[in-house]
């Protein structure tokens, strides 16, 4: 699938932009701050309905506007899909597909798949668990759209249970009975999420090992993945072995239920839910140690790149190339890593690349070109690309 046409209204710095796009690589080139990342961020939003740069939607709406609109024509083979997402910060988004409103906006999730690699991804290796949980869950939903509902339900139950825990200390009696009911919902949904996350990690780990070896070159330590869970059965953080057997969703629910019961006293004291996938972490391993706190800056970058290439390989193996988005990453990579990334980027059905300096982008990816500057984005025709390359 690829984006054939992108149209934005009041999205970030763009009041209005209208851009035909082609399959294969396209470079968005222009000076710092002209709005290149904003353009590809909008494509990423189509896939996840969230931004890779901010956790809330408000910054995505142009200053002074009430809402932003991202519209796209998507091509799969000879079929075309029109989508329009109206971003309403603080309220539900509105999604229209082929001009018909969608009942639930989240039903759109999974319809477009992107893999986005950006400087922010260093946080996958070095940042808080929140970043890694988000990475896992977004990928889960893009592989299995049904899980968007499980995740939303889990978040809702968690919120209500936390509210109840806060008041339960005072109320006791009745509140405790209600808590038992919420425990059932929480562990049922939690078990499903844990099961899905473990399955994903098991699939992703060998891809990461392979991608990291390619990126980091000969003699590098092996990269792996583990899961560190507040539900002991779901993982203690050790790297997952390829031949391991994973627990079932029912077993995970049961294990989570036991753990929740054990920790009820602490939860009442602290007024919050301490057990569940919302407190877990994906552990990235490099050789014998977890990468976080040990890996060098360069190794951390390679791991982040490896994770994204692994994601690309996983989604590709499931039948369709995701749209590859490379935001400002070539300048910071050395020759070996650049080559590893360029190889994938060249083969993807569509790759969108941003760069302030064209020369930072490997020559074989410099086909399609969009010039971004002065509040406009303009697609260069092949003649103009040739002339601009001679300059
Ligand atoms: N909600 C918004 N409303 C208006 N302008 C915004 C909004 N959000 C971001 N901007 C502006 O967008 C610009 C940044 O755009 P963007 O991050 O796409 O730049 P870029 O071309 O990728 O630059 P660089 O090469 O430095 O990465 C900034 O000038 C910022 O002030
Ligand atoms: Mg940028």
Architecture blueprint of SSEs:
Layout: E1 2-11, E2 14-20, E3 24-29, H1 36-48, E4 68-76, E5 79-87, E6 94-97, E7 100-101, E8 114-117, H2 122-126, H3 129-143, H4 147-171, H5 173-216, E9 223-228, E10 236-239, H6 249-262, H7 264-270, E11 281-286, E12 289-290, H8 297-317, E13 323-327, H9 335-347, E14 350-355, E15 368-373, E16 376-379, H10 382-390
Parallel strand pairs: 3-14, 3-15, 8-13, 13-14
Antiparallel strand pairs: 1-2, 1-4, 4-5, 5-6, 6-7, 9-10, 9-11, 11-12, 15-16
The protein binds adenosine-5'-triphosphate and magnesium ion.
Residues 12-13, 30, 32-38, 59, 61-63, 328, 354, 356 line the site of adenosine-5'-triphosphate.
Structural write-up:
This protein has 391 residues and is of the alpha+beta class. The chain folds into 2 domains: 1-113 and 320-391, Rossmann fold; 123-319, RecF/RecN/SMC, N-terminal domain (Glutathione S-transferase Yfyf (Class Pi), Chain A, domain 2, Up-down Bundle), CATH 1.20.1050. The chain has 10 helices and 16 strands. A hairpin with a 7-residue loop joins strand 9 (223-228) and strand 10. The radius of gyration is 22 Å and the shape is globular. The mean pLDDT is 95. Bound molecules: adenosine-5'-triphosphate and magnesium ion. The RecF protein is involved in DNA metabolism; it is required for DNA replication and normal SOS inducibility. RecF binds preferentially to single-stranded, linear DNA. It also seems to bind ATP. One of its GO terms (cellular component) is cytoplasm.
